[in-house]
Amino acid sequence: MGAPSQSTSDKKATRDAYGEALVELGGSRADIVVLEADLSGSTKTADFKKHYPERFFNVGVAEQNLVGHAAGFALAGYTPFASSFAMFLSGRAWEIVRNSVVYPKLNVKLVASHGGITVGEDGASHQCIEDFGTMRVIPEMTVICPSDFNETKQVIHAIADYKGPVYVRVGRPAIPVIQRDNYQFQIGKAEVLSEGKDVCIIACGIMVSEAMIAVDALKEKGISASLLNMATIKPLDKDAILAKAKECGAIVTAEEHNVIGGLGSAVSEFLSEEFPVPIVKVGMKDSFGKSGTWGGLMDYFGLRSKDIVSHVELAISKKLK
């Protein structure tokens, strides 16, 4: 389905950053162990296996066992990173995540690759668009979706130092690397990528680079847009959201996820009680994905910069006069 994906020659996949960060951590910390469910080539944990085979464990196609083993390593004092596809780690293993990892507050890092519709040709069965929702509803769970390669590396190092359960989604395709100066990721803190007064766009993952393009397009239309990279979906940076809601009076959220249960829902839940403003959500409109090139699917399901622009115009039209 759809047009061919755009060239990725100057882009990098966030899953590749995960693999590189694991190798870096393995060299400096003997407590790091990596567990895999027979997908190490795809999740990029195979890089860690090459360097530290004695601390790599493939449990096979058994995601519930994967999470259970990770819980055991955490109880033994290790810092386990457990990986599989997002569909399986957040879906098939959900009850084990809840009761064996998060409820006892174990120091387990769940890093899920191949999230969202950019899985592409694998189709709807593997295109997880529910994981933000299923993970963030677990009490005291931290949920993160980094925007690019460089931020992903920082995220993996940050969660290795953080004590407690974390879920991180990384992606399959090579996506734009965002140019930043002196950026340092912090759990629960939004990154301000643009300042504006007419509307605030709040995005995560691949949608951040699309939102950056949208900000420029809106400027040409005379619309001044703020942009927040909300890599941490839970806990939300409520202070940043509230400040932008008061300043701009309208919010647009953008995510590669169902509009039900994800970033848009989290922002709406917060602002509905604190400072209600018009909120319009860019994302999967309560529909499953399809098989096709990831770029074609982004076009088909309205997850491009032009779609953000149209949603911004709708949000502004809803502002109280």
TrEMBL record:
<comment type="similarity">
    <text>Belongs to the transketolase family.</text>
</comment>
<dbReference type="InterPro" id="IPR029061">
    <property type="entry name" value="THDP-binding"/>
</dbReference>
<dbReference type="InterPro" id="IPR009014">
    <property type="entry name" value="Transketo_C/PFOR_II"/>
</dbReference>
<dbReference type="Pfam" id="PF02780">
    <property type="entry name" value="Transketolase_C"/>
</dbReference>
<dbReference type="InterPro" id="IPR051157">
    <property type="entry name" value="PDH/Transketolase"/>
</dbReference>
<keyword id="KW-0786">Thiamine pyrophosphate</keyword>
<dbReference type="InterPro" id="IPR033248">
    <property type="entry name" value="Transketolase_C"/>
</dbReference>
<feature type="domain" description="Transketolase-like pyrimidine-binding">
    <location>
        <begin position="12"/>
        <end position="177"/>
    </location>
</feature>
<dbReference type="Pfam" id="PF02779">
    <property type="entry name" value="Transket_pyr"/>
</dbReference>
<protein>
    <submittedName>
        <fullName>Transketolase family protein</fullName>
    </submittedName>
</protein>
<dbReference type="InterPro" id="IPR005475">
    <property type="entry name" value="Transketolase-like_Pyr-bd"/>
</dbReference>
